[in-house]
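Example 3.2
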Amino acid sequence: MTIRVLLADDQALLRSAFRVLVDSEPDMEVVGEASDGAEAVRLAKEQRADVVLMDIRMPGTDGLAATRMISADPALAHVRIVILTTFEVDDYVVQSLRAGASGFLGKGSEPDELLTAIRVAADGEALLSPVATKGLIARFLAQGGDFPDRDPARSERLDALTGREREVLVQVAGGHSNDEIAERLEVSPLTVKTHVNRAMAKLGARDRAQLVVIAYESGLVRPRMD
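Structure, written as tokens:
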């Protein structure tokens, strides 16, 4: 199956470079280019995109607003968003993850990292870099950041998790893969995947990226200062 990729960046030169890279792969193709968030939302629908590479800072409708619009549209529930940023620690990135983005990637990343991110996001496992995303949230909070629009209802939903699901959620927030969690908890990877999927359903999370954010914003996991 070919992964349909939408490029959203206000810099035409970057879009062109990304297009050449993506179109060079046999399992993916660029189906559209957008120079702002509003155009990205429109093209995501029209071109039936699977993954959107979304620049976070664009004129007009920025990447954060576009991410929220795509995530809130039931017709686009299958779309995965990878935020592209030039900033390692950026509160907008954290907000984007909460809004439904699958993860983030620095614009200075290697080509192979970008292609891997697209494939992982499209695969539904999302959280293209668990350790990196967890680290970003931890550093952001350690510097005095906060989640200003906490959702008490979402925090209360943690009560719906079983003990094992909560345990798995802590491991996911720690940046561990299903195989690593399975080894730590002495269960099968399939069992871990089942617990992760159930936790996502109960917490209303689109993917693992949002599970990490929920774990931090609810206080279930605290950022390490080291």
